Amino acid sequence: MIKLACAYLGSVLVAAALSSGPVQARTYDIDIVHSNIVFFIDHLGFSRVVGVAREFGGSFEFDPANLPASSLDVAVKVESISTNNQQRDSDIQGADWFNAAEFPEITFVGKEFKQTGEKSGKITGDLTIAGIIQAATLDVVFNKEGENPWDKSHVVGFSAKTTIKRSDFGLKTALGMIGDDVKLYIEIEGRGR
User: Fold this and answer.
1) Which among 6, 11, 31, 101 is least surrounded, fewest beta carbons within 10 Å?
2) Do residues 89 and 78 touch, judged by C-beta distance below 8 A?
3) Burial class (CB within 10 angstroms; exposed 0-12, middle 13-18, buried 19+) of 38
4) Each residue of 53-110: pLDDT tens digit?
């Protein structure tokens, strides 16, 4: 689920293309200090459990003159996923859920980058969770592209969201009690090299 977060990077690529400024082809690294991946999943219909990925990273290449040539590669450390409860976090690392010992990372590789509006786009790619690969698409909104006034670095920012089914990745424990749909929300800043 978190790896969708990876897709967010691809979004940046689309988003940057939507900006009005003079964007040039360049490579960006995810600025972990100013980026977040958050997910929500239903608990017995009473509430939604909130989780975050604390450790993730990746990079992407973007050429506004040739959007289809963009690239995106992101990874989330499964052991960094936190739901603010030690017992639950320990459970989801286990074999019935993410199986972090065998599959320590969730990854997302962007494959297709499309602009859908003045400041919106979609990124479709391969999401891998617990060793299973499925296509996933992020809806992306471009926020801003320009110079960071503090350190003068070149930065792009975007917001993205998607919904995946955990059962598509073999995570079927407690279906019917714990939701199948996982909603992902991503806020990303990419820092140019």
Assistant:
1) 101
2) no
3) middle
4) 999 999 988 766 677 788 888 999 999 999 999 999 999 999 999 999 999 999 999 9
